[in-house]
Amino acid sequence: MLKLSERIMMAAEMVRHGKVAADIGTDHAYLPAWLVLNGVCPKALACDLRKGPLDNAKNTVDNYGVADRVTLRLSDGFDEIEPHEADDFIMCGMGGTLMTELVSRTSWLKDPKKLLILQPQSHAEDIREHLITNGFEIIREDACIDSGKLYCSFCARWTGEIKPYSEGYIYYGKLPECGKPEAKQYLQKVAERLKTKLEAEEKHGSAEKADYLRCIIFETEDKINGI
């Protein structure tokens, strides 16, 4: 039986039952294969920018007998996907800056029936900020430890409503609400990164930027203390 890593399972658990999923940057296609094998999705798309990963994906779907339910697609992000082909769109294994680029150029994702499931490897604040300033709502977030590394995942959908948010929100999102110790550890790492940036600003940057970072750190640490 196909077994997923902790971080990929965290994303898989956010996929809605009965929906068609598209895994963007699929690599070996373990996630879409698992989704159809376990009856979560009737079918799925496994998409990647490069031919090499799609060859790996083909081996997976052939070995697990799901080639009739998992469609392989050579695609740069969402470029070769038609809006009607999938409902839930998963992106793992890439940075938040790249996610922002891919989502921003795909206007048809602004559909309340679509769900984005995102697991940024870095700069999660970039994709959070893009979502909440473009009418998307972050529904929930989760965190885990996989092979000694901390990961967060969150799902979002478009509502068309742009709600006010605090300056620190893009750094912690809804992670504090999940209440898990892994979320606390993840946010502690975020706070450490912000403090490093603050030190650099204090030495060589602007006073305004340093004040901004102090506010963000205070807000983030307040959330950490509440978990």
Protein described:
This protein folds into 2 domains: 6-163, Vaccinia Virus protein VP39 (Rossmann fold); 176-227. Helix content is 43%, strand content 21%. The protein is built from 9 helices and 7 strands. The protein has helices spanning 6-12, 30-37, 51-63, 96-104, 124-132, 169-172, 175-178, 181-204, 207-225; strands spanning 21-24, 44-48, 70-74, 88-94, 115-120, 136-146, 149-158. Strands 3-2-1-4-5-7-6 form a 7-stranded mixed sheet, with helices on both faces.
List the helices and strands and how they pair.
Elements: H1 6-12, E1 21-24, H2 30-37, E2 44-48, H3 51-63, E3 70-74, E4 88-94, H4 96-104, E5 115-120, H5 124-132, E6 136-146, E7 149-158, H6 169-172, H7 175-178, H8 181-204, H9 207-225
Parallel strand pairs: 1-2, 1-4, 2-3, 4-5
Antiparallel strand pairs: 5-7, 6-7
Helix content: 40-55%
What is the count of β-strands?
7
Major β-sheet annotation: 7 strands, mixed
User: What is the architecture of the largest domain at the second tier of CATH?
Assistant: 3-Layer(aba) Sandwich
What is the distance, rounded to the nearest whole angstrom, between the alpha carbons of the first and last residues?
36 Å
Strand arrangement within the widest β-sheet reads: 3-2-1-4-5-7-6
Output the number of helix runs.
9
**Structural class, from secondary structure content?**
alpha/beta
Q: pLDDT under 50 segments (min length 5)? A: none
Coarse morphology: elongated
Strand fraction: 15-25%
